Amino acid sequence: MQVVAPDVYYVGVNDHLTELFEGLWPIPEGISYNSFIVKGEKTVLIDTVKIPFVDEFLKKVEEITDFKIDYIVMNHIEPDHSSSIIRLLEKAPDAQIICSNKASGMLDTLYRITDNIRTVDEGDTLDLGGRVLTFYMDPLVHWPETMITYDNQEKILFACDAFGSYKALDFGLFDDECDPDIFYEETIRYFSNIVAKYVKYVKKAMDKLSQLDIKIIAPAHGLIWRKDPQRIIDLYIRLSERMALPGVTIIWGSMYGNTAKVVNSVIEGVKEEGVPMTVLNFSKDHLSYLIKETWKHKGVILGFPTYDGGPFLNTSYYLHLIKRKDLRERIVGFFGSSMWSGRALQQAADHVQELDWEVVEPLLEFRGAPTDEILQQAKELGKKVAQKVKE
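User: That's the sequence. What structure does it adopt?
Assistant: Structure tokens below.
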């Protein structure tokens, strides 16, 4: 039995089986699906888990409640949070579902559940008998029906996908049971992959939550923050403000090795300026990590050849995704090889300028293999981007 606070229990599970979260994002270190039981005179269960783990989940729920559950709070209807609901209702058929109005329609669409549902709105409460839960609507963080639940007694924020992270809870549930730094990079990647498109709604949520006295943050994925909840709040505020670190992310791809020959020169230039740097490859590294590192660092240097008269195809998907995620205000340099059509770098530069990215001139496009002069220019490109980042 895992106790979060007096009469609050953890009944979530770890997932080390899924390779791609949402069918898109690699999770080599797994992920957790966090579910909670809160007891007063009445008992409430907050969120369920992904259906492949329902038996483990139900065993934990039975141990604490013997399935005597009065309410099931559904903060979010995405199946990684909700798909065990039918099996749970078989065990606790009289439990009333508490959810937002939009969520009730989704329960019908996904699971044909229409009975014994109580919809709530902003600021509505649920009295468990001296212990009161308050509901706050959190639309588009990251689905339109999402809400969060606040336990007024223990000051716990059951935050759903806000403040979440990839990585299973193998080292403990809480930030004081492990080194929370091991979740830092996976929190940034989770944010940039899942939540980033909706940053303006995240900012609204941050403003709303700042009015609450929060002692514990219990998200639907990742660590429960009870020692230093302000740390994860501050990180999410910084991420939602796109406040990047003073570093440079170099991402490159090459068809026949000509663009690849320039990469080390770019790296040398960045190194000379002494700023942190990450180097990734369009052909080998998953877009999940490319987007994360671009969100993380202020400077970006993109190297790729011309392909079909435009950017290298893997680069095109990256450019599409940063626009879709609305990743703004970066400093960027470009380099790459072409043979007869030299439009790829300009097309990419035009694309990112729509996002208020500052393009560092010149666009270092060269024909065929790089000369010694091109290699020196590549080094200068790395230095110029790094210098602007330091400014």
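The chain has a mean pLDDT of 94.
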